[in-house]
Amino acid sequence: MSYLVFARKWRPKDFDEVVGQEHVTQTLKNAIRSQKLAHAYLFSGPQGVGKTSCARILAKALNCAKGLTDSPCGTCPACLEITEGRSLDIIEIDGASNRGIDEIRTLRENVKFAPLNGRTKVYIIDEVHMLTSEAFNALLKTLEEPPPYVKFIFATTQPEKVLPTILSRCQRFDFVRIPYVKIIAKLKEIAASEKRTISDDVFYAMAKASAGSLRDAESILDQMISFSSGEVRLQDVVSVLGIIEDDLFYRFVGCVTCGDGEGVLNLIGSVVAQGKDLNYFLEGLLEYYRHLMVLRIVRTQPQALVDIPTDLLKKISEQAQKMGLGDIVASINHIFIAQDLSRKLSGPRVPLEVLAVKLASHHAKKSSSTHASPVPAPSAKPSAPSVVAPRPSGIPRQEEGPADTPMTSLASSASCTLEEIKDRWATFLGQVSQAKMSVATYLKEGQPVGVEKGFCVIGFPKPAVFFKEALSHKASVKIIEDVLKSVYGVALRARLDIVEGLTPSAAAAAAAAAQEAKPEETPFLKSALDLFQGKVIRNK
To answer: Least enclosed by CB within 10 Å: which of 19, 224, 225, 275?
Structure first.
């Protein structure tokens, strides 16, 4: 007997063996039990997730010798013929090679004939979206009112290409990508049956390479067992499939957070030396940072959002808790930029290396500023309660400050000078960036210019008025005041002023110049005018 590949040998024989599509199989079983079956079905979803298998199981359920059943026996002549693909009543058509109107006309003629052996004639058309518009239109009438002994089952990976008139005549079931955990469980079952011992990390690498397709995962397992005469090792899977293991992403993030630019560049060099696709590396890195973001936020049942094994989830979660959420989100934005640049350049290596150095430099700068200017611990000694003398009658009450001004701000402001504010300004900006990156970005355009009456005065040059106004919202001011108290140990209020004589940054100067320039002088409009040889005829 010829060898049977795993994808065919382990094809599900009934609805209970279908992996990861319970929402589909349960609905079909209920319809069979209640005898409320539609005349046409559309199974849509990615490749290798069970669409054609479910179609064949439904055909067996309709023709099994046991009668109409949701659990076909698999041993009667009708079930065996369908399983082996030789039933004359189950017609499987490849939509890609039989896509014309002539083939559909032939189908329409054959629909009139009753089934030869079974009770129901079933037409299974795979990749139905490949049919031409003329072929779809020729099928419409037959599809809407087929003979009572005919069922149509369409399968497609691109349902958006199927005509709406066809969709409206079918019951649609959307198949989903199978979670890695369920794929791993099925691969373990197959490996145990084949008497092969394989480690969990190898199973995970196979499941990840399959991208949610059980058929692809079974094919990979079949390939690796043939490749390895003995034990299937992770290194064999990595070398044969060209995948990038998660340990590389873990080491990449570790180097970045330590500010090790040299280490992260050497890591990228080793990936290139192994012949890995750096575009695939960028995609994997983006997914890894997405895991970090989710695990940094979600504390209860993160497995519902992160489809990775428990051991790896714990490892990534520990790494995520050591990072600031703002840094993770900013890193994701930088990865998007690197991907965009890689599409514009001849290769992704330079954008990836620039990304790595930028992230490592950011963490190195933040780490050095934190070590150079440590945050003083608040004194454990409680302060003496203040005593307010009673106000004699007849003396008018002095105007009080805002109700939300802390009582300690005026009393303790004398213990914090402008020099102390400036000395730890880098530390202050670093902690603001962890609270909200945009606030820290705008604050970099200003500088502390004074401490007076409980206020820390932050001055901005005139061209940076946009940045000053952006920080004027109550939420941004609160972030600044909270971090001021955390870093300097003093309850200071923040006041933002435009101060003459301060030197603007290049970004502020460019923003001011663009705002004041005539429309035809802005770089964007100037390039548009040059491109189309146009001119401005009205300037309001």
So the answer is: 275
